[in-house]
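Appendix B.2, paired examples.
Example (i):
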Amino acid sequence: MGDPAGIGPELILKAFLDEEALGRCAPVVVGEIAVFRRYAEMLGIGMEFIRVESAREARSAAGRMPVIEPEGSGAGDCLSIGRIGREHGAAAHRAIVEASRLAMRGDVDGIVTAPIHKESLRQAGVMFPGHTELLGHLAQSRQTAMLLAGGGLRVALATTHLPLKEVPAAITRGMLERTLRILHGDLQGKYGIAAPRILVAGLNPHAGEGGYLGREEIEIITPVLDALRAEGMRLSGPHPADTMFTPPVLAEGDAVLAMYHDQGLTALKYATFGHGINVTLGLPVIRTSVDHGTALELAGSGRADPGSLFEALAEAARMAARKAGAR
């Protein structure tokens, strides 16, 4: 469900009105019927809500939404649309925990998430910076990685939601090696690319310019790339980030690894905003998401664009089919 005060509920309602969006999978919603009913009434959407106890009971179809309600649900009673709030964060957290439980148990083939609001989560006492880190904790994954995709681009991040001043210290040889192994393995397993080509960005301007603008490329990034190349991985770089997103460079890779959030995602969101998706790598389950936030200013307006959610649904279905075919 995501944050009940944001645009997530509206996006999900729009998905259940669209035969094409539902045609690739049989989704069940984890959230609160009272929240969806409030939005449906506000937006004039006719929708039948069916409370179910398990995904196996769900029979989704256009105009009919099966919903699993987590224990403790009650956000609909105190919902303040378009506002940050502790109860909103608690409701989003309950839905994430329940969806993770369903996926880890094998009751569903994957998780697709609507956006959450980090401040509402913090007010609810949930101190993870985002879905990626929280889902990694719930799945007991040693390390996860964030990948955004769209418009022919796949961009993974070595670090995610960190203040910029903390990024250099976070980029260690061990972390970078684990991230590249996760990216390489999921490009094979989730995307079906037998021998992935990965373009790796430098941290500093001009990839450090031989140490003149920083030594991370010399002391950390290049040694990791050399060690993994020796194992057979197809890695290039470290590339200067200001030219890495040009067509001739991108043509040489299947995915990009950026060192920090805005280094990688500015170019991708410029190219795909509204239709890109977020994929969590390193989880034992499939998880995709929209590539945007809660857009509190649009909540309840009826103007939210569901394109990214539709793409996230389609990608999760493709991954699940690929996984089933590999068994």
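Example (ii):
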Amino acid sequence: MTDSFRQAAGRKVVSRASAEELGRIDQLVLDAPARRVRALLVGRGRKARLVDWDDVSGFGPDAVMVADDAAVREPADEWERVAADGKLAVVGARALSERGNELGRVDDVTFDPATGVVDAIVVGGRAVPATALLGSGSYAVVFDAAEDDRAG
């Protein structure tokens, strides 16, 4: 079973302890070297908060469950602040090969909702295996040079 960044956007984040909605997912933050979801971004802008993937106890089609209200937290460092500001958003980002060739834009990211492991990155309607992912930042998402041949 897979889920996607686009499908997850807007999903409720709910505390198991209080049964209260703590917010809604705005984006998912990708850990490119590990090829997995690092965190959920809840809310936008200065009010944006994060939930570490390790604090997610259930990721369902209607809601994401966390143990308690403390799982939703403020950004802890500059990298997390940049992510909270939306500057590390993967969906919509430019996709480049490591040679610097334009591959298109990232349409979506599919992942296993049980583990957060990324299955594929959808670029220009084509699913690129997560194993081709080299890095992700504010400028672009970078893929192995072999994607030059597959994209053409």
